[in-house]
Design a protein that fits this description.
The protein is mainly beta and 252 residues long. The chain is 5% helix and 37% strand. It is globular, with a radius of gyration of 18 Å. The structure holds copper (II) ion. Copper (II) ion binds at residues 180, 182, 228, 230.
C-alpha cells in the first residue's frame, strides 16, 4: 500500500509469511559464513543473486527452495536481488541489503526504490513494459515514503553532537537518485560503483541503480534537518508533495 493508500502489486524477500515492504536486512561480520534458504512461495518463477558475487545465481521455480552459502572478507555492503526476468522482478521490490561490518558506529539503513504504479500492475500480469518510457510516481525508503518513513527507527537518523553515524544506502530501483543533506556533510566510506570517491566529504550523493554506498556522518550542530532526493519529482508520491523520498535527521 502506497503513501496515499492506493495499492499496487509489490514483491519482497521476507523472513516469514508476514508481508513487509522492506526486504529482510542481512547484517553479518567480515568472514562470517552466511547460509540462506530461499523459498519461492509465489506461483511464478523467481531467482536469486548477489551483485558482484560469483557463484550464487539461482533460478527458483514456484514452490521450490534454493540454498546459497557465501561470505565476505571485508566490510562493505552488497545488494541481493531476484535475477530472474531481470530487471522486472527486482524492480517489483525483490532486492535488499547485505551489510558486512563490525564497527560500533550507530547505523541507519536506506533501501531506496521508486515505482510507476501502472507498471507494477503491467508486470504482475505479464504485460511487457518499455523502460525508456518509465515515469515513476512513487518513491520509497525501506518501502515507506514521507511522513511514514520518519517513524522507521532503522532509517530516521537520531543522534547527538559528535556521534559517529553510518548510513547504509542501496539504490534498488531503476532511477538514479541524488540525496541532498541539509545542515550536514558526510564522508563516503564505501561505494560499490565509485571506490575512488571514498574519502570525499559532501552534502549531495548520487546513488546509481544497484549501487551501494556507506556514508559516515559526525554531526557538528544540533537541529532537525531534511534529507531528500534532489530530483524533485522524487519528493512526491502519487503527485502529492512531500510524500516521497524525504526524511529528517534529528541531532540533539
Ligand atoms: Cu535539498
Amino acid at each position: 500500500m502506497a503513501v496515499d493508500s492506493s495499492q499496487f502489486p509489490y514483491y519482497s524477500f521476507n523472513e516469514s509469511a508476514n508481508f513487509q515492504a522492506e526486504n529482510k536486512r542481512i547484517i553479518i561480520a567480515p568472514n562470517d559464513s552466511l547460509f540462506l534458504m530461499i523459498i519461492n512461495t509465489d506461483s511464478i518463477t523467481h531467482g536469486f543473486n548477489i551483485k558482484n558475487y560469483v557463484g550464487v545465481n539461482r533460478t527458483i521455480l514456484a514452490g521450490d527452495t534454493a540454498y546459497v552459502s557465501c561470505s565476505f572478507s571485508v566490510s562493505g555492503m552488497h545488494i541481493y536481488y531476484d535475477s530472474y526476468n531481470y530487471p522486472n522482478n527486482r524492480y517489483m521490490g525483490l532486492s535488499g541489503m547485505i551489510v558486512v561490518e563490525n564497527s560500533t558506529a550507530s547505523k541507519f539503513f536506506w533501501n531506496i526504490k521508486e515505482h510507476q504504479k501502472l507498471w507494477n500492475k503491467f508486470i504482475s500480469t505479464g504485460t511487457a513494459v518499455t523502460w525508456q518510457n518509465y515515469y515513476p510516481d512513487y518513491f520509497t525508503i525501506n518501502g515507506k515514503s514521507n511522513p511514514h518513513i520518519n517513524s522507521d527507527t532503522t532509517a530516521r537518523v537520531i543522534g547527538k553532537l559528535g556521534d559517529t553515524i553510518r548510513i547504509y544506502i542501496a539504490n534498488t530501483g531503476q532511477s538514479v537518485h541524488s540525496l541532498h543533506f541539509h545542515g550536514y556533510h558526510s564522508s563516503i566510506i564505501y561505494s560499490s560503483k565509485h571506490p575512488i570517491h571514498v574519502g570525499r566529504l559532501k552534502d549531495t550523493f548520487s546513488v546509481y541503480r544497484m549501487e551501494s554506498l556507506i556514508l559516515e556522518l559526525i554531526p557538528d550542530q544540533k537541529g532537525e534537518y531534511p534529507v531528500h532526493d534532489h530530483n524533485l519529482v522524487a519528493v512526491s508520491g502519487g503527485h502529492i508533495y512531500p510524500n516521497g523520498m524525504f526524511l529528517t535527521i534529528l541531532i540533539q
